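Hi all, long-time lurker, first post. I run a small reading group and we've been trying to get comfortable going from sequence to structure in the token notation. Rather than ask abstract questions, I figured I'd post a concrete chain and ask someone more experienced to write out its structure so we can walk through it together at our next meeting. Sequence below, copied exactly:
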Amino acid sequence: MLDMRLYIALPSDDIDFRFIEKEANTYFLSIKNKTGIQQAVDPSDSNFLEALVITHQGKPVSDFRFCDVRLLTQLIAVVEDYYLSAEKAISEDVYGLGVITIGLRKTGENKLLLTALKDGKMIVQAELPEKEWIDKLFTLGKTYFSCLIEYGISESFHTKVLSIIGEYEKRYRDTYRRDLG
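-- Answer (accepted) --
Happy to help. Here is the structure in token form:
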């Protein structure tokens, strides 16, 4: 079983990533916290620091260190690149809080390796079930951007992102997913 939870960081210049796990409740809001997000986030903003916490079979894959500006959008773009480039892809973002490099590589039948390096340190390295991970990523993306639209946050921008995710998901389902069974 794979579980993925996305959080938005509260706007702050005081996030100390050395203690991010202990202070995560201070800095991050669940995407389901409509009131908290509406109070904390500028409705015209579309650049959020997002953290993705992943567990697989009850074991942690990532923690709050797996965060960057528009992290979810980056991951969905990496999935699109993964299928367009013979099932391996690397994305590097230098616009966030540091340099984050996200990689996907096929490792076996319906298995892929997700890696993430932040400022040269490995923060994620896990072999995951390909179909389940990608399906959950698209579902999370649709839920997240639908929530932001519902919350009245940068609605026009997030509507476009949601449309792009729908196109990527359709292409994935029509072209690649049938091969995964």
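A couple of things your group might point at:
DSSP finds five helices and nine strands in the chain.
The mean pLDDT is 85.
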